């Protein structure tokens, strides 16, 4: 059951009032589990009376279940790449006494082949992922499918419109309201049906390894500069039986840890389905026959206490469109719990993020391993 905090929010829309909570849960969270674009979209659907109960509704990228909860009477299909979004959606349905089965949750790699009357898209942060979703959509659109994209104006550059025009059809904008906007697209079935270019691959510099990247993966076209720096300072040949690549993305960090630790078990963890699928393919291509563990979930929540020897992490600095260090802090806490005594957490962060202060709070101490103008790599050992 969801733990509703003091800052619990209530989404008040024509479809009803819904108590909504973000995930990961934070006591006194000041951030709402929905945005003005969700409100605008729900208001619009109500005013247009475009939703009759027999309408089939597809929702893409619902942040924490605001759209799914408000539209549950239409038994929508909801597709997302985020485990946290999906989990929040389930919890928010339950908190509002709505059965989980009233919506069909699918992950980003499990597209439906059904067609829909209405497709509602919250524009995601990664445009490549948006493009890939539009490519999938092309296959299931019919001439009278209503397609509406919604987002905050600042998160909808001209490229969003261009992509919609390229894959769906002519677009028309709404007026902006509370800095949110809707884009209506008229389906044009004569547009060229495009084959998805994803996953894409690049060869990891100075190696023969091919890195697999699905559309929503961090730094999918080339090695990120922070990851490159981290790769230079990974622990080598230490006595580690179980090693975690926490927030693994395409798995590049775990891959190099595996190379330096022949007999270790590698554990790849990410909250993005596409990331974990990419890491799995990356690892299996590089080490044919070597097994590893793969988890989609919120960091280390499913891991046993005192079970891992080494955790390496390049933490996220945003969740969807919100910037902040809350996920990193929760990863540090989780790592402390999951590490064996004398186990190590190695973390890279932008210098200005000051992770050492948080690591000291959690581990009692931490040591700088390396730094350059932009990044610092920290080592925190769980004391005996
Ligand atoms: C900065 S990227 C690092 C990716 C990869 N390790 C690298 O260095 O290229 C951070 C990763 O953390 C993942 N992430 C975000 N929140 C998470 C959570 N709560 N649990 C697990 N992974 C999470 C993101 O999906 C993203 O892949």
Topology diagram in text:
Elements: E1 9-13, E2 16-20, H1 36-48, E3 57-60, H2 66-70, E4 77-80, H3 83-95, E5 104-107, E6 118-122, H4 127-138, E7 146-152, H5 158-167, E8 171-173, E9 180-186, E10 200-203, E11 210-213, H6 225-232, E12 242-246, H7 252-260, E13 265-270, H8 273-286, E14 293-296, E15 308-313, E16 318-319, E17 322-323, H9 326-338, E18 339-350, H10 355-363, E19 367-371, E20 375-381
Parallel strand pairs: 3-4, 3-6, 4-5, 6-7, 12-13, 12-15, 13-14, 15-18
Antiparallel strand pairs: 1-2, 7-9, 8-9, 10-11, 16-17, 18-20, 19-20
The structure holds S-adenosylmethionine (SAM).
Shape: globular
The CATH topology of the largest domain turns out to be: Rossmann fold
* SSE sequence, one letter per element: EEHEHEHEEHEHEEEEHEHEHEEEEHEHEE
* CATH class category label of the largest domain: Alpha Beta
Radius of gyration in whole Å, from Cα? 22 Å
Q: What is the overall pLDDT average?
A: 94
Total helical elements: 10
Just name the CATH architecture of the largest domain: 3-Layer(aba) Sandwich
Which distinct ligands sit in these coordinates? S-adenosylmethionine
Major β-sheet strand ordering:
5-4-3-6-7-9-8
Q: Report the sheet-strand fraction.
A: 25-35%
Low-confidence stretches: 1-7
Determine the N-to-C terminus distance: 35 Å
Class by SSE composition: alpha/beta
> Percent range for helical residues?
25-40%
How many separate structural domains?
Answer: 2
Largest sheet: 7 strands, mixed
Please identify which CATH superfamily of the largest domain we are dealing with. Answer: Vaccinia Virus protein VP39
């Amino acid at each position: 059951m969801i733990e509703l905090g003091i800052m619990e929010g209530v989404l008040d829309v024509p479809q009803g009032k819904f108590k909504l909570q973000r995930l990961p849960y934070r006591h006194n969270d000041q951030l709402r589990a929905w945005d003005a674009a969700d409100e605008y979209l729900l208001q619009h659907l109500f005013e247009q009376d475009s939703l009759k109960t027999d309408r089939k509704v597809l929702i893409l990228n619902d942040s924490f279940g605001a759209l799914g909860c408000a539209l549950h009477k239409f038994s929508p299909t909801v597709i997302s790449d985020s485990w946290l979004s999906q989990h929040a959606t389930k919890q928010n349905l339950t908190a509002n006494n709505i059965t989980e089965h009233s919506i069909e949750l699918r992950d980003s790699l499990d597209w439906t082949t059904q067609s829909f009357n209405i497709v509602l898209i919250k524009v995601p942060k990664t445009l490549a992922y948006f493009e890939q979703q539009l490519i999938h959509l092309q296959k299931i659109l019919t001439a009278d499918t209503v397609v509406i994209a919604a987002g905050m104006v600042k998160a909808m550059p001209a490229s969003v419109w261009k992509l919609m025009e390229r894959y769906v059809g002519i677009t028309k904008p709404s007026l902006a309201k509370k800095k949110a906007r809707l884009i209506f697209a008229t389906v044009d079935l004569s547009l060229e049906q495009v084959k998805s270019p994803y996953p894409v691959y690049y060869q990891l510099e100075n190696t023969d390894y091919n890195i697999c990247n699905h559309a929503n993966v961090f730094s999918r076209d080339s090695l990120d500069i922070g990851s490159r720096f981290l790769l230079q300072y990974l622990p080598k040949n230490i006595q580690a039986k179980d090693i975690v690549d926490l927030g693994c993305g395409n798995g590049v960090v775990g891959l190099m840890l595996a190379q330096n630790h022949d007999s270790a078990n590698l554990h790849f963890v990410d909250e993005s389905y596409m990331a974990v699928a990419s890491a799995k393919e990356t690892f299996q291509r590089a080490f044919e026959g070597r097994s590893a563990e793969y988890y989609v979930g919120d960091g280390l929540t499913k891991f046993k206490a005192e079970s891992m020897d080494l955790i390496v992490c390049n933490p996220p600095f945003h969740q969807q469109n919100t910037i902040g260090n809350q996920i990193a802090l929760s990863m540090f806490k989780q790592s402390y719990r999951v590490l064996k005594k004398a186990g190590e957490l190695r973390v890279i962060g932008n210098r200005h993020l000051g992770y050492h202060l948080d690591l000291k709070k959690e581990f009692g101490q931490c040591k700088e391993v390396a730094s350059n103008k932009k990044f610092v790599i920290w080592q925190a050992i769980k004391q005996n």
